[in-house]
Design brief:
Elements: E1 2-6, H1 10-22, E2 26-30, H2 33-42, E3 47-50, E4 53-54, E5 57-58, H3 59-65, E6 74-77, E7 80-81, E8 84-85
Parallel strand pairs: 1-2, 1-3, 3-6
Antiparallel strand pairs: 4-5, 7-8
Length: about 90
């Protein structure tokens, strides 16, 4: 599965990338909307894991953009509450 992870908190981004890669997925992990938008326009992803609140935009907006490129994808969000990833 090809996955794009967009998370500005590197303490979450790096472990997510590692775990997903070790599980056999192809993972692109980025920390801002501009890079994510470029990747979305150029590549096909099976899954987007998005932080909803990013310094340069919104994961919700990224998910809404995807169909404009003529693509279908599943989107989910990840956020940290306390010391736990939900």
């Amino acid at each position: 599965m090809k996955i794009l992870v967009v998370e500005d908190d590197l303490e979450l981004l790096e472990p997510l990338n590692t775990v997903l890669s070790r599980a056999g997925h192809v993972v692109d992990g980025v920390d801002n909307c501009e890079i994510a938008t470029g990747l979305i326009s150029e590549q096909d992803y099976d899954l987007l894991i998005l932080d909803w609140i990013l310094p340069t935009g919104s994961g919700i907006n990224l998910c809404q953009q995807y169909p404009f490129y003529g693509k279908n994808v599943s989107c989910t969000n990840a956020h940290r509450q306390g010391q736990y990833l939900r």
